[in-house]
């Protein structure tokens, strides 16, 4: 006597589980469910995948830089519709590349600096904190100025120590400015003395001076420090050698560089 084979029934989500999945998918581009299987006590383990493009950086009217990120999350949903635990999350990044187009691109232009080729590391979108401790103890808030210890701030710290012997925070070092005179344009601008010192120490080319000034005018000290952080990598990428010319700063006469009091 032949036995009747049981047909396989694909696991389904209940209404509350569907609501959670639909909300999760709605705010993520190209998201789709790739797998569902049953867990214990009415749980459903759902696998969702989606992809997105990294922020667009426009270099010119017909060139831009952009990458792509692929995500996968496997989350266990209780029968009440909420995640039982933090999801298993994985991702894959296609590094940003420079692309050219046959059409005109409109938008704000970006300088071709190393930062536009980097992608911020994604974080797990489903985190469940099982143990929350409510502390009733009074905590004392303290503030501390961070000292420059690595990267470009370490170089800044070294230059300052060699000149003054003082240990200052990055904020303090960037608060002192000098009057920089651009002999190419004939204009003058106040720049952080630390930025000028680093550009001189790196033997920056006229174009690198120009880029640093443009970034400072647009984004302030933080932006130009990020540019200086990646300057060596940018030179290596485009095989740009430093120059020994330092005539971009007028140093003739006592009024060529004017220091501004840090406390003012």
Which residue ranges are poorly predicted, with pLDDT under 50 across at least 5 consecutive positions? 244-264
Shape, please? Answer: elongated
Roughly what is the average pLDDT, rounded to an integer?
77
| Terminus-to-terminus distance | 98 Å
Write the H/E string, N to C: HEEEEEHHEEHHH
Q: Main sheet?
A: 5 strands, antiparallel
The count of β-strands is 7
Radius of gyration: 28 Å
Number of domains: 2
Helix content: 25-40%
β content, as a range? 15-25%
Quick tags:
264 residues; alpha+beta; two-stranded antiparallel ribbon; 6 helices; 28% helix; elongated; disordered C terminus
Helix-strand blueprint:
Blueprint: H1 15-26, E1 32-38, E2 44-53, E3 57-60, E4 63-77, E5 88-100, H2 151-164, H3 170-175, E6 177-181, E7 188-192, H4 193-201, H5 206-229, H6 231-238
Helix pairs in contact: 2-4
What does this structure look like?
The protein is α+β, with helices and mostly antiparallel strands. The chain folds into two domains: 15-117, no CATH class; 151-238, no CATH class. 28% of the residues lie in helices and 22% in strands. The chain contains six helices and seven strands, in the order αβββββααββααα. It has helices spanning 15-26, 151-164, 170-175, 193-201, 206-229, 231-238; strands at 32-38, 44-53, 57-60, 63-77, 88-100, 177-181, 188-192. The strands form two sheets. Strands 1, 2, 3, 4 and 5 form a five-stranded antiparallel beta sheet that branches. Strands 6-7 form a two-stranded antiparallel sheet. A hairpin with a 6-residue loop joins strand 6 (177-181) and strand 7. Helix 2 crosses helix 4 (193-201). The protein starts with 14 loop residues before the first helix and ends in a 26-residue tail after the last helix. Residues 244-264 have low confidence and may be disordered.
């Amino acid at each position: 006597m032949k036995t009747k084979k049981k047909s396989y029934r694909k696991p389904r989500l209940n209404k509350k589980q569907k609501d959670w999945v639909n909300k999760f998918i709605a705010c993520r581009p190209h998201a789709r469910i790739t797998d569902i299987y049953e867990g214990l006590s009415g749980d459903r383990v759902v696998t969702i995948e989606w992809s997105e493009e990294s922020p667009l950086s426009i270099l010119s009217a017909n060139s831009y830089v952009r990458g792509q990120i692929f995500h996968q999350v496997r989350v266990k949903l209780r029968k009440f519709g909420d995640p039982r635990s933090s999801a298993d999350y994985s991702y894959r990044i296609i590094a940003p590349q420079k692309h050219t187009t046959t059409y005109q691109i409109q938008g704000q232009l970006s300088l071709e600096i190393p930062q536009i080729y980097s992608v911020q590391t994604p974080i797990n979108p489903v985190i469940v904190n099982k143990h929350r401790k409510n502390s009733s103890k009074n905590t004392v808030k303290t503030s501390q100025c961070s000292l420059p210890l690595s990267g470009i701030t370490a170089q800044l710290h070294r230059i300052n120590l060699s000149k003054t012997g003082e240990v200052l925070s990055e904020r303090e070092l960037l608060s002192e400015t000098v009057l920089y005179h651009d002999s190419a344009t004939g204009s003058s601008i106040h720049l952080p003395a630390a930025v000028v010192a680093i550009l001189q120490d790196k033997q920056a080319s006229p174009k690198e001076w120009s880029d640093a000034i443009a970034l400072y005018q647009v984004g302030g000290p933080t932006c130009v420090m990020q540019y200086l952080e990646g300057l060596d990598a940018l030179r290596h990428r485009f095989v740009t050698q430093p120059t020994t010319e330092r005539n971009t700063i007028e140093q003739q006469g006592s009024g060529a560089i004017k220091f501004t009091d840090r406390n003012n």
